[in-house]
Design a protein that fits this description.
about 375 residues; alpha+beta; Alpha-Beta Plaits; eight-stranded mixed β-sheet; five-stranded antiparallel β-sheet; 11 helices; about 30% strand; elongated
Amino acid sequence: MDLPSPLAWLVDEAGASPGPERFLAELGRRLLAEGLPLSGGALTLSVPHPIIARRTWLWRAETEAVIEALAFAATPQSEAGREWLAGLGPVWETRIGPAQDNQASDGPLLGWAGVASGAGNSAFGPAAISLLREVARFAAAPLAALAAREARAALLEAYLGRRSAARVQAGALARGTGETIRAALLCADLRDFTALSEVTDPHQMITALDAYFDRVAGAVHAFGGEVLKFIGDGVLAIFPVTAASGGAIEGDREACEAALRAVAASRAGMVHLDQVRQAQGLAPLPFGAALHFGEILWGNIGAADRLDFTAIGPAVNLVSRLEGLCKPLGRTVLISGAVAANTGTPLMPLGEHTLRGIADPCAVFTLRED
């Protein structure tokens, strides 16, 4: 006996869906083809992420569009899918997973909204509910595979960053492999961190570090960059030149402008954080940040059985040395001539300076307001 189209698809093809959004849209389309009067669908997956508790994909039958909603760890009780479906019509939903599985309450949640009518829940008659139950049963295996892939992606992104995680998932695992890319680099570091950590409770120090990293990394991500490393109290981030840019010159300029906006936002965030800390009777957190632009090798280095996805090259060395000049020059932000040549942002020149281990002197600039 042939299975109905949605069930056959769930058995034969659904496990290879490129993502939950495509899974939901394709399943909804096939249910519509079976005659179910659907107005929308929702799929919710739990993810192991430090900020995001659940991801929900919302499909609208009329437009076939899928959008994503996030439930954050601070508000775990939010049920975006159920609330959204209720606005479309009568709702039928179920938790996917074996009844005997103690973790079923954390399993995928699949729901559908019927076309609203004066008959109330009649959109889901006995035949429709029977099919939806069978769909939920057959969906368990492909959704388990999808949930595992999403969980793996969430963990990799949390620890490696979005771009690096995508490379690792694509199979870039061999030691010594990588690619040369052009990017603006940001290197930031707290000043006098060692002395502060000597007189601060370790738990308070971790809280302070987290607050500092939130300001810097938050600004980096807000302007399209990616944090590569947290090293003690240091941060290394990149703003790669993307293929979507109009050309080499435009791409270089876009990356540098993004880095400049990020470092300005980081500085503003740290000023506000220091005000909050001082109101609490805590010491401020002075920091320095440097920007440079150039080519880097972005890829795998490390031991045979312990790899690190990172950036290396002369440009990385220079931006690190440049950040070390922040304290001697009494500046929060220092910018290399390579970045200054790729921006229209007004900068203040500070002359040429010799950097330790760098052969040629570096033209150094700073923000006008620094």
